[in-house]
């Protein structure tokens, strides 16, 4: 597939809007792991009618927001190694227990970024194939969480589709993604392709298909 | 005679550590990283080490310093790319240090398995990815899994918050991370601990690592804080 002409590009939802759509879809009393970076925004948009418990894979269940400058404790960090807080009702555990929460299927939702997502739900998000290979907990999360949500721009910085027929980058997991939240649409992975759950109000289904390398239907 | 695992100094606690040893190093980034024990190893000059840790060190302090001193031939870790990493990238990009990448949960479970007498296990993590290459596959209930083997070490270097002379350990918040399971998976676990208490002062309900998993202790009351050390431009030695 050729690159998309920049002049034709339509500006989609901003990242805060995408985050609020994901927040809306996380049910009350879910255990959730938010990936480092853009997915961390989701916690800011949880409505007051629900309580979500956040897991950080370095051994923290019941993670709270960033601390004030004078309350930073370098022994209390998240998976991105940034200082965080623990909420009442939270707990600490060692790494094997923390990953049992993930690998044992106890985490209800994880939200991750993506480089490529295939029409069959394969995800590539850990390696460009260059530099020092570093996987962290991404492969465990996609293999173990009950629902894997992807939060991403629809196109790469080079204006190429991220939603593809087949991933070209090294996989994080095969057939693992359940739903994609992009700036252009919310899509489910189905046997028939990418199913549009919600389309950005400024774009047409034809346009969405033109920027997606894989079958799209409504 | 009473059991007492507390050693008098760094020379004594590191006396058994040998060239070519495999050493597990606790910590997730700087939280729970046994910086003083690693500096002790730099002073001792032990070389050709294989290090098992989640990360590959920051700056030229602790694990970053040990790697920078070229005492490490191989690192087994989940994430060897950190914003403040200096020494590992230098050596890796020159092809002068070996890296085995392991998914973080698989790393933890391989360590836990070794400490529990389990030689291997099947997991869904990594199936269909480059990290599954060469690994035995097996189907359970229609789903594919790969075989991962237990990961043992000669020594574990661990940081804890409190201990008694038996080695009953507690940790501080997310500084716990890999430390308890590494104590279980190594032939000898060497622990640097901030506070040493009387056995009667530790509530048995609060012990995280029971003393059977600990061989040696050293009291480091004011350990180096990595972030501050790097900001201040500290390098070791």
CATH H-level superfamily of chain A? Glutaconate Coenzyme A-transferase
Largest interface: A-B, 41 and 49 residues
In N-to-C order, the SSE pattern of chain B is HEHEHEHEHEEEEHEEH
CATH architectural label of chain A = 3-Layer(aba) Sandwich
Tell the overall outline of chain B. globular
The rounded Rg of chain B comes to 18 Å
Helix content of chain B: 10-25%
The CATH class name of chain B reads Alpha Beta
Helix content of chain A: 10-25%
3D structure, described in words:
The complex is a heterodimer of chains A (218) and B (237). With 218 residues, chain A is an alpha/beta fold. Chain A has a single domain, classed as Glutaconate Coenzyme A-transferase. In chain A, 15% of the residues lie in helices and 25% in strands. Chain A is built from four helices and 13 strands. In chain A, strands 4-3-2-1-5-8-10-11-12-13 form a ten-stranded mixed beta sheet, sandwiched between helices. In chain A, strands 7-6-9 form a three-stranded mixed beta sheet, with no helix packed on it. The longest helix of chain A has 11 residues. By secondary structure, chain B is of the alpha/beta class. Chain B has a single domain, classed as 3-Layer(aba) Sandwich (Glutaconate Coenzyme A-transferase). In chain B, 22% of the residues lie in helices and 25% in strands. Chain B has seven helices and ten strands. In chain B, the strands form two sheets. Chain B has a seven-stranded parallel beta sheet with strand order 4-3-2-1-8-9-10, sandwiched between helices. In chain B, helix 5 crosses helix 6. Chain B is globular. The N and C termini of chain B lie far apart (39 Å). The mean pLDDT of chain B is 97.
